Amino acid sequence: MNRTGTVIRSTGSWYEVDADGEILRCRIRGRLRLKGVRSTNPVVVGDTVHVASDAAGEWTIEEVAPRRNYVIRRASNLSKESHIIASNIDRALLVVTLHSPSTPVEFVDRFLVTCEAYKIPATILLAKCDLLAGCREEADAFTAIYRSAGYEVLEISALHGVGMERVGGLLAEGTTLLSGNSGVGKSTLISAVCPDLDIRTGEISESHHKGKHTTTFSTMYTLPSGGRVIDTPGIKGFGLIDIDDAELWHYFPELLARGAGCRFYNCTHTHEPGCAVAEAVEHGEIALSRYESYLKMMDEDDKYRK
Length: 306
Fold this sequence. Notes:
alpha/beta; Rossmann fold; 13 strands
């Protein structure tokens, strides 16, 4: 018997596939691993797959349909392999926190670059806003940087219901990827939107102020609104892959908006005279932190993007 469905859970060994409401537990056919794909995970949550059952009634994923987009990162700091987080996404919500734990700005920028590269609209959720009273100036500065770059930034508190109506609206249609570092409150957020879902939530390590992993495997949930949300394990780092040096600045909206004003058409915005981007940074029109992230990506990831 042959069926077509959507991968809703991936453990790396087993995959759960939603085929018209019936959940099939599947393995993948070995040849899927031998197609020259550099990805460490040939099948991911969000994939449309064709499955077949044998005489014993066991299901196997035979083929993965072409993906319209995906979010991808380098598998590790020393690897040229990639790790696809999820596929066929309508939007991404990046959950960040300024403290307990602190989300590195460079992590935010790398995630946003990948979303831009694969044409996935992204919104930043500044979580645990009930804890921002003592760092209001820092929160306002963070929000200003990303709003000026063209991103929607929402301050939310899943525990206190702040901003959750807007989040619920974003989740109401299509498939949304929810991502971020461990401990920022992704699972708590989904539980607040849909309390009926059985999702584990965790605590913050008191000694290191870092999140503990609570989501072990990527899982897609269908919400009462009809939308679907993909909850992912916390990500520590986000290395870029398959993005060429000459294209990188195209994925910073504020750099792209000013790049046409550069003296040289092939300006890299690193050292050339008459660079409109560098001038905008100097005049405070582009946030220095964003420009520094761009320079670091050009420098540190160059060998992996060749």
